[in-house]
């Protein structure tokens, strides 16, 4: 019988290559089930079946669906942050237009990482205290952008930089996220990126 406690912590961490392979297979199966059937219909029995393991083996590592989804969210966030943050510090002295182009391009890339899974993780998972939200990439982008704008304060039209960061990051996040959900083709043709960059430059410059 599965445990009744609602926890998002794994039961144990894999210590050997074979155990890691089992956990990887379980997480990949979790992603496959979420993409195909959605969060509400996903069950540990179904995930174990897709992974090709017994449900007892699954429970050795994950006590319930919440723990599985949490591990998958953390994996997804890690992939997104790697795309977003690599090389950003090298842009400290770059022109404003170039920085806008890189940030928008990176956010589009972030939202293009397994878009079907991204939709499930952001649209269907309950926003309770115990399940993480896919939003850490926004905080990373905000921190970089705040530091960058501080060094360019004299060039900018907005004077309240905290407000400017909020407006910019939330605008880019909302547009790229809705594109994933409603118009995924817009993430590939370059037109959306051009429009968002133009929007940001017009907002930031006098």
> If classified by CATH, what would the architecture of the largest domain be?
Orthogonal Bundle
Total number of domains: 2
Poorly predicted ranges: 1-5
Shape: elongated
Oligomer: single chain
CATH fold description of the largest domain? Tetracycline Repressor, domain 2
Instruction: Output the structural class.
Output: mainly alpha
Task: Please compute the radius of gyration using only Cα atoms.
Answer: 20 Å
CATH class descriptor name of the largest domain:
Mainly Alpha
Helical residue percent band: 55-70%
Strand runs, count: 0
Q: Tell me the span between the first and last alpha carbons.
A: 64 Å
Strand content: under 5%
Tally of alpha and pi helices: 9
